[in-house]
Amino acid sequence: xxxxxxxxxxxxxxxxxxxxxxxxxxxxxxxxxxxxxxxxxxxxxxxxxxxxxxxxxxxxxxxxxxxxxxxxxxxxxxxxxxxxxxxxxxxxxxxxxxxxxxxxxxxxxxxxxxxxxxxxxxxxxxxxxxxxxxxxxxxxxxxxxxxxxxxxxxxxxxxxxxxxxxxxxxxxxxxxxxxxxxxxxxxxxxxxxxxxxxxxxxxxxxxxxxxxxxxxxxxxxxxxxxxxxxxxxxxxxxxxxxxxxxxxxxxxxxxxxxxxxxxxxxxxxxxxxxxxxxxxxxxxxxxxxxxxxxxxxxxxxxxxxxxxxxxxxxxxxxxxxxxxxxxxxxxxxxxxxxxxxxxxxxxxxxxxxxxxxxxxxxxxxxxxxxxxxxxxxxxxxxxxxxxxxxxxxxxxxxxxxxxxxxxxxxxxxxxxxxxxxxxxxxxxxxxxxxxxxxxxxxxxxxxxxxxxxxxxxxxxxxxxxxxxxxxxxxxxxxxxxxxxxxxxxxxxxxxxxxxxxxxxxxxxxxxxxxxxxxxxxxxxxxxxxxxxxxxxxxxxxxxxxxxxxxxxxxxxxxxxxxxxxxxxxxxxxxxxxxxxxxxxxxxxxxxxxxxxxxxxxxxxxxxxxxxxxx
Amino acid sequence: xxxxxxxxxxxxxxxxxxxxxxxxxxxxxxxxxxxxxxxxxxxxxxxxxxxxxxxxxxxxxxxxxxxxxxxxxxxxxxxxxxxxxxxxxxxxxxxxxxxxxxxxxxxxxxxxxxxxxxxxxxxxxxxxxxxxxxxxxxxxxxxxxxxxxxxxxxxxxxxxxxxxxxxxxxxxxxxxxxxxxxxxxxxxxxxxxxxxxxxxxxxxxxxxxxxxxxxxxxxxxxxxxxxxxxxxxxxxxxxxxxxxxxxxxxxxxxxxxxxxxxxxxxxxxxxxxxxxxxxxxxxxxxxxxxxxxxxxxxxxxxxxxxxxxxxxxxxxxxxxxxxxxxxxxxxxxxxxxxxxxxxxxxxxxxxxxxxxxxxxxxxxxxxxxxxxxxxxxxxxxxxxxxxxxxxxxxxxxxxxxxxxxxxxxxxxxxxxxxxxxxxxxxxxxxxxxxxxxxxxxxxxxxxxxxxxxxxxxxxxxxxxxxxxxxxxxxxxxxxxxxxxx
Lengths: 614, 485
Prior knowledge:
The complex is a heterodimer of chains A (614) and B (485). Helix content of chain A is 25%, strand content 16%. In chain A, the strands form six sheets. In chain A, strands 1-2-5-9-10-11-12-15 form an eight-stranded parallel barrel. Chain A has a five-stranded antiparallel β-sheet with strand order 16-17-18-22-20. By secondary structure, chain A is of the alpha/beta class.
C-alpha cells in the first residue's frame, strides 16, 4: 500500500508536487450518484475516494461543477460562486476536499475564464442595453466584420464567432458556442472579478485550476485572437496572486496549440505551472497504427524545453473528442481513416471515442500506450473509466459518447446509481463487449490480472521513481523504426535551471547549424547518474529486435522495474533486446553488485548483448 | 591536420611482414583473398604516440598508406601488449594482424579507446569524444560513431583525389541543403580524401527498414478482410514517400546549384544512349524484345530530354534516412560498380527518380520473400498495389515541388518518356547484376522489364495521374509545418 501523507491545508512542504503527480479526471455527473437521482454528485466522488486512493492517484481534476444550464457540460457557467444543485452545495465541495486531503489526494477544478453562459446574470444585464453597469463586460459590436482572422473552433455547430442579439441590437463575440459569450478582459472590472473567483475557490480548499480555453481571453484586430501578449500579461497577474496568497496551488492551462506556442503559457516560470501537451496525444495513437516511432519522436523533438519548475500534462484521452486540431491535414485524414471508420465517430475536428475502443479493445495496445503515458516527460492525466477499459456510445450526441456513467459493478445501472434507469443522465453502456456486465470495477478488483490491477501496479512503480516526473529525456537511437527507446535521467545537478522538457534527444539540427553537435544532446554528455531509467517499447504488432547504443552506461546493469529481474550488464557493444508484440520494458540502470569484476561484466555481455559475437 | 603522421617513418619490420596475410582477410581488399605479392608503403607514421611514454605499457596507433596489386589502401594499426588485448577488443580474429614478442597489432578502429584518440589526432583536437562504437565495415570503408553525435568514415581503398561522397556532401551542405548530415571532419592528404566525418543522425532509420515495416504490416492483413488497398492499411507509407519526393526535388535543386546544369549535353547524347539501351534490350529473351518497338519509338520521339545535372547516381531506399527532422540523403559516391569518370558525368535528374521508383518494387517483393510460396501467391496483388501507390506518392511529392520544373523535360510526355528510359536502364542493370550475383532475385528485374516492354505505351506514359503534381502544392517537407491554424 502507498504511504499516505495528508495534504496540509496551507503552505505544503512540496510546492512542486504536481511534477510527480498522477492526475485523474472526473466528470462529477458521471462518477457516482449518492442520492439516487440519476446524476452523479460531489458526495458521490467523496464516497469513491478510497478507490481513487487505492488506484494510486495523486490529484483529481473535477470537470466544472458550478451553476450552469448545462448546454456545454458545465463549461457554460451561469454563476461562479455556487454549485450546481444536482451536484450538491458548497459544503459538499468542502467535504470532498477535506476527505481527499486526508488521503493525500489533491483536488483541482475546471475554471472557465473565457466565457460565461448566456444565462449568467452578467450577460443578462449586459445585453439589456448599451448603458448598463455590465454593458462593457462582454465583447459587443455593431457588425460581424471584426476579428475576421479568428478561426471558428466548433465547426460542426457554429458558422461565425459573432452572434446577433436582438435584445441589445448588436453582435456579441463567442469563440465557442453562441450561447457562450466571451467576457471582455479589456474591462478591468472583469479582470478583477475573475481574480475574486479564483481567491474564493482557493479559500474553499481547492488545490488549483485547470484553466479552460486560455488562449482566447483577449481580442485584437489583425490577429487570429489567440495567444495574445495581453492574455499572457493577465495570466502572469493571476499566477502572482496565487503564489503570493496560496503557495503550492497549481494552474494547468488548456491551450490546444503547437508546443512552441504552448510553452509561452509557462512564461519564464511565472505563468502556468502546467500546460497540456495536445499534439503528443494523437501521435501516440498514430505511432502504434503506423508501427513506427517517428510521430512521437518528431513532436518531442519539436517541443521546446520548459522553465524550471514547470511540467507538461500529458494524456491519452479526456472528456472531449480526441482532438485533431494540432496535426497536419494529411495526418488528420490518416487518423480519421484509421480511428473513425464510422463517420458518427467524428466530432468537430476530432474523434469521439474512448481509449479502449480506439485500440479495438486490444489490452496489449492499451498497456503500451499507458506505459508511454507514464514514462514520457510530463504528468499523466487519466480519464475516469479508462483504467478499466470502458467503451463509448457513438450514438449519443456531441461529446456525450465518452461521458457515460462509470461502471462500478455488474449491478443495476452499473452500480452508478440506484435511480430508475429512465432517470439516468445518460444510459450506461450495455453492449456485450464494453457494457457494465463485462467491464466494471468490482470484477476487475477481484481479478489480479485485470487492466485495473495492472494500472495500479504501474502507478506504484512510477511513484517509486521520481525521475519519470522530473528527469531529462533523451531518445536512444535504434535502426528498427518500430522500436522507441529513451532514457529518463535525473538532472546532474539539481537547481541547474535545466529543462525537464520533452525536447531532448532531438536529432539532426537543421541547415546552417553545421559544426556543433545537434541540439538536445546535452544530457548525453553527462556522466551516468544513479536512478536513470531506460524505457524500450515495441510499437509493432509483431515481435521486434533492437540494438541500443548504450556504451555510455557501460558496466551498469539494467534491472526491469516490474519484476526486478537483472538483465545482462551493458557492454561496449550495442545492447540487444527482443520485444514481444506491443511489448515494453522499463529498466533502472543500476551499478553492478560490489565484488563483480569488470571482466565478468564483459563476459555477461557476450551472451545476450552482442548477437554478432561468435 | 596529420601532425603526428609524419611521412617517411617506416613501419616496424615485424608488422610489415604480417600485413599481406592480414590484408587478404579484409573485405575491403580487392585481391580476392590472395595475399598481395608485393606491398609498398607509400607513407606511414605514428598517429597516436604511446601514452605516458616508457615501460612498454599502453598502446599506440600507426597509420600507413600502402600500395598492393595496383590499388592504394589506408591502414590504422593499433599496437598493445598482448596480455591486455581481451580487455579492449572483442573476439574478432579478422581484425588482428598478428603478434610480435609480447605485443599484438590489430585494426585500431575496433578498439574504442584507440578510435577516440584517432578522432582527436585527425582533427588536431577540434573534435573530441568520450565513446566510440564501430558500426560496421563495408566494402570500401569502416565507420565509427562517436558519442551518438558524429560518424567518421575511414576510407579503406583510397584512390588519389577527392572522394565523391565527401565532395558532394560538403557542397550540398554549403549550398544550404538541409537534408544531408552536416560535414564535421574532412581528413585529406595531398588532395586525397582519407576520412570523412558527419553529424550522426541519431534516432534515424533507413528508408528500406521503414518501407519493410509498412509492407510487413500490409501483408499481415487477413485475406478474408479483402483489404488490398494500401491506403487503408495502418502502416501506409505514402505520406513518407511524398515527403521523400519533396526532399529529392530539393536535393536536385541544390545539386544543380552546386555543380551546374547542362542544357545541351543530354540532348546531344540522347540518340546514342538510346541506341545503347536498345542493344542491351536486344540481348533479352525474344519474347521481351518483340514488344519493345513502340516504347523505343516513344523514347526516340522525345523532343528534349531536359538538362543534365550531377545526380546522386545510386539513389534507392537504402540511401535515405528518416529522422525526426524528415528525410536525409546519404552516400553520394554513385554506383560503386562504375568507374569514377562515368560517375562524374552529368545526367538527368530522372535517373535518381527512376532509381527510387525501382527501389519501391524491390522493397515490395523483398517483403514478399519473407512469406511462403503459397502466401506470396495471393499477396502479389498487394505488392503491386503498394508499389503503385508509393510510386505515385513519390512522384507527387517530387513534381509538386515548384523548383524542379527547370531541371526536368518540359512537356509532360517528355518527362514520362525520360523517366521510363531510366527505369529501363536501371532494370537492365539490375538484371545483369542479379544474374551475376543473386540468381534468386532475377525474377524481380525481369518482371519490371516485362512491364516496361510489353505494356501499351500510352498506359506507361499515363501511369501517374495528371493531377499528381498539384495535390500537395505548398505542403513543405517538414511533416509538422502545415495544419497550423
